[in-house]
Write a structure and sequence with these properties.
4 helices; DUF4228 domain-containing protein; alpha+beta; 13% strand; PADRE_dom; 144 residues; Ubiquitin-like (UB roll)
Length: 144
């Protein structure tokens, strides 16, 4: 007896962790089935989709191509098309999913006041300058 492996196509495996997409108006939508970026771009014209794990301040936005399939368990974010070739700033990350007037009551808190961004990451409003002090060294005399 041996193991039998089918060469047929297997159905796509559903994940217990849905794909999440954050739209510009703050709406978060979950997907439990395979979804391609083009489907979401049709819903939000003049927008592009970015995987949240690729958002690094100082680097350029890495937009998904229209035929790219969204991976289960990841968070994707819609940004306005005017930012497609720009460099990511902290302001871009802080404003992710910032609720519009229609979603204000649902959220119930302001990310700036709580110090927590919309994805649950801490947000710092100001940057602390390092304290530079002169290091005083003692003179060591060695006898040989």
């Amino acid at each position: 007896m041996g193991n039998f492996i089918s060469c047929g196509t297997s159905p796509k495996v559903m994940s217990s962790r849905p794909t999440r997409v954050i739209f510009q108006n703050g709406k978060i939508q979950k997907f439990n089935e395979p979804t391609i970026a083009a489907e979401l771009m049709l819903e939000s014209p003049n927008s592009f989709l970015v995987n949240s794990s690729s958002l690094i301040v100082g680097r350029r936005f890495s937009a998904l191509s229209a035929d790219e399939e969204l991976e289960f368990g990841n968070i994707y974010i819609m940004f306005p098309m005017k930012k497609v070739n720009s460099v990511i700033t902290t302001k871009d990350i802080i404003s992710v999913g910032k609720p519009g007037p229609e979603n204000e009551a649902k959220v119930g808190r302001s990310p700036e006041k709580d110090g927590v961004g919309p994805l649950g990451f801490p947000v710092r409003q100001g940057f602390r300058k390092p304290l530079l002090e002169t290091i005083m060294e003692e003179q060591v005399i060695s006898s040989r």
